[in-house]
Amino acid sequence: MGKAIWKPGTVLYPVPVVMVSCGTEEKGNIITVAWTGTINSDPAMTYVSIRPSRHSFELIQSSGEFVINLVTKDLAYACDFCGVKSGRDMDKFKEMNLTPKKGEKVNAPIIYESPVNIECKVKDIIPLGTHHMFLAEVVSVSVSDEYLDETGKFHFNDTQPVCYSHGAYFTLGEQLGTFGYSVKKLKKTKKKK
Questions:
Q1: 92: closest CA among 71, 106, 77, 74?
Q2: Mean pLDDT score, 80-86
Q3: Average pLDDT, integer, range 159-185
Q4: Is 99 helix (H, G, I), strand (E, B) or coil?
Q5: pTM of the entire structure?
Q6: In this predicted structure, what is the pLDDT of residue 107?
């Protein structure tokens, strides 16, 4: 087996794909983002990286807040649409029949149809080149109760989450293990006499 050498680039796939909502409930916008992730646990922090030329960039920069809405199989079409159309030209909530609802802790709207809404307040904006990174603290998380069981556990995989890999959208496949399974000790069975 050999290795082909490529120029430096962003080939870390798959990545989460999310719909970031911003603005207000009355005048909101949605941008599709694949450059996002977890930064810190306590306080809970995340980021989104957005090109300054995007309509949402100005909305987030001026308000200092946004909502990360997780994408499911049912939302994949709207996710792609919101990534190729500009909010300068249309109301993406209306075009995609999505429901904007004011967040609990931010004025930016959540996408009600998304099963997980992560409300964020911007702590810093870092210019990096083609994109600026909005570092943000998570101030509230809402989840759809239809995915909660009687104990209050959220069954995330039942939402059919979507990821993005090299220009395409995918649902998640089979589970290979759980955290720590590589070092978990096997239970010994007692031999019958």
A1: 77
A2: 96
A3: 89
A4: coil
A5: 0.91
A6: 96
Residue type, position 158, single letter: D
Q: How confident is the model at residue 103 (pLDDT cuts 50, 70, 90)?
A: very high
Could you tell me what percentage of the chain is helix, strand and coil, using 3-state DSSP and rounding each to the nearest 5? 15, 40, 45
For 100-107, the CB contacts below 8 A with 24+ separation are 100/21, 100/25, 100/28, 101/25, 102/24, 102/25, 103/65, 103/67, 103/140, 103/142, 104/140, 104/142, 105/139, 105/140, 106/65, 106/66, 106/67, 106/139, 106/140, 107/24, 107/25, 107/63, 107/65
Q: How far is CA 175 from CA 38, 43, 157, in A?
A: 21, 29, 10
Contacts 24+ apart (CB under 8 A), 36-41: 36/68, 39/135
Q: Which two tokens stand for residue 119?
A: 């409300």
Phi, psi (rounded to 5 degrees) for 15: -130, 160
- Under the banding of pLDDT at 50, 70 and 90, the label for residue 184 is confident
